[in-house]
Amino acid sequence: MKVLSVVNQKGGSGKTSFSVLLTLAVASAGKRVLAVDCDPQYGLSAILAPAEKVERLGLFELLSGLAKLEEVAVPVNRDGITFDLIPSEYRLESIATTLDPFALKRKFKNLKKYDYVIFDTPPTVQGISRAASMIADGIYIPSDIPIPSLGPTLYTLGSLRDVEKEGKVVLVGYKEPKEELKGCTARLAREFKDKLNGNCAGVLPRNVTMAKAVADPEFKWTAAMRAKILAPILEITEIQ
């Protein structure tokens, strides 16, 4: 079993969208996948397994010792792509910021039922995000390239190094500027990528099709759509 964690101190960086696509991509490759929503804002849960009542069993109950893993895992089917999800909701806020760094390791270590466990985390590098990083075999940091994103993304990389972990940045909506372009946007794009100092895993496009693939539960995952949207995710993460 391998663990992949999606982190970034910056909110709105694309963590949940990347986590959705990562889950779908890995599951579409025939792997047994468990996605875990670690964010009290429960974006991953709302997208992948919406429920009329958010007070269902989930990660809060698992970490609080009120339920077992098999009691909180929800089966999900997105047009033939199947996986399990452990949902989150607002009550997780009461324990997320102060969570023991090894709490997730104790609950998720060596699960024989799954090939991959994928953690989507809240916008922080402390508490539950640190715990998800500590157990991870691979850590991905989605980030767009506006000025407010650079500092938090570099801070996230540094915080991971403090716990002897290495993160890889996935640039969302990034386009390599042409050499002749000298404007602010081109300059910022070059500066951002240069400061990553080799810690860039790849680029994730930002467009209407990608947004629909993330948010629409009725999205048709044809062979063409899998090749266009999910195959690049597998290439970025080097999963076969």
Description:
The protein is globular and about 55 Å long. Strand 6 (138-143), helix 8 and strand 7 form a beta-alpha-beta unit. The chain has a single domain (2-228), classed as Rossmann fold, CATH 3.40.50.300. Helix 1 (15-28) packs across helix 11 (223-237). The chain is of the alpha/beta class and 240 residues long. The mean pLDDT is 90. The chain has helices spanning 15-28, 43-48, 59-63, 69-72, 93-96, 103-108, 127-134, 147-162, 184-195, 208-215, 223-237, and strands spanning 2-6, 33-37, 74-78, 81-86, 116-120, 138-143, 167-172, 200-204. The protein contains eleven helices and eight strands. 41% of the residues lie in helices and 18% in strands. It has an eight-stranded mixed sheet with strand order 3-4-2-5-1-6-7-8, with helices on both faces.
| Global shape | globular
Series of H and E elements: EHEHHHEEHHEHEHEHEHH
Biggest pleated-sheet summary: 8 strands, mixed
Q: What is the CATH C level class, in words?
A: Alpha Beta
Ends: how far apart? 14 Å
Low-pLDDT ranges: none
CATH topology: Rossmann fold
Radius of gyration, in Å, reads 17 Å
Looking across the biggest beta sheet, what order are the strands in? 3-4-2-5-1-6-7-8
CATH architecture: 3-Layer(aba) Sandwich
Strand content: 15-25%
What is the number of strand segments?
Answer: 8
